[in-house]
From TrEMBL:
Keywords: Isomerase. Pfam families: AP_endonuc_2 (PF01261). GO terms for molecular function: isomerase activity. The keyword Isomerase applies. This is Sugar phosphate isomerase/epimerase family protein. Gene3D superfamilies: Divalent-metal-dependent TIM barrel enzymes. InterPro entries: IolE/XylAMocC-like, Xyl_isomerase-like_sf, Xyl_isomerase-like_TIM-brl. It comes from the Bacteria. Residues 70-316 form the Xylose isomerase-like TIM barrel domain.
Amino acid sequence: MSSLQHNPKASSPVYKQIPTSRYLADLPKGAYYQGDYKLGLNFYSFSHNLNSWINGTTDGAPPIDTMQVIRFAKEAGFDAVDVTAYYIPGYDNSTMPTRPDEEIFGYAAQIKLLCAELGIAISGTGVKNDFADPNEERRLLDIQRTKYWIDVAAEMGAPVMRVFNGAVPKDIHQFGWEAIARERIVPALKECAEYGAGKGVVVGMQNHGDMVCTADQVIRILQWADHPNLGLINDTGFFRSFMQPTGLNYDWYDDIEAVLPYTVNFQVKRKPAGSNTDPFIDLEELFRRIRRSNYRGYIPIETLWVNGDENHPQQLPEPPYEQVKQFLAQLREASEKTKSYS
């Protein structure tokens, strides 16, 4: 049973944000980094096409399999791939794996072998989970599932396991953000981080416009958890005010910068306010902020489409190779242009 206690004041407000400016004021000031970054491809960039393959249906999007995406990434000039676990046959979002262990771990070994043969790194992997769910059984199952895929990550050679914090639960107004974060999310993250430490896999929680939308929420949760094997997947497309549908009129770049000391990996999106909004990310501004930090890890991209987008994968005769390569070229150009401080 949950130990959460009803807070009669929690609904007004459910969460009071500490301004990002307070965190920025405490950021360590280091030398401006002028070197190269390793750029990666998150598999979700081909989600429509990979889903066609994994589900055995075209559904309007030409199928592509995991090994083909790895080969494409190498040919396109990516330094690394983030092999989302969704695209390992046997993965399921709500149950333990649906295929035998030997088949799943065998496939992970094949991924590792192919990447080694091609000379491309594996920057991470990830699962779908909900550590904020009011149902304790659901949370315990997601912890068990995460541990299983940490084992797979270790077999594959993925250094980081990406996890979510969870959707805003139906009882948020009853208990408030902090109580749910402290008593549901933090213990689950700590348990997974401790397990990952024994396997050599860092656990990275991702801000995803859910229970974690702001730099303040990121930092508070990570400080409450206080585990050396737990960090942040810095998702540039999901910083926004809590419980808001988009990040329009929000200062995404300050939040991105404020959490850089906690960042263990990235997901760079084309649209910082959300995939269903208009503004495009200023990649030079992004790299200038990263270069002022001590972050030296991978910087993977994740291209997303919503219905009505031009060149939506379901409207193309082949997977969106050119669109992904174009975003990579923009990222590389911005990285090069920002090497000299200005």
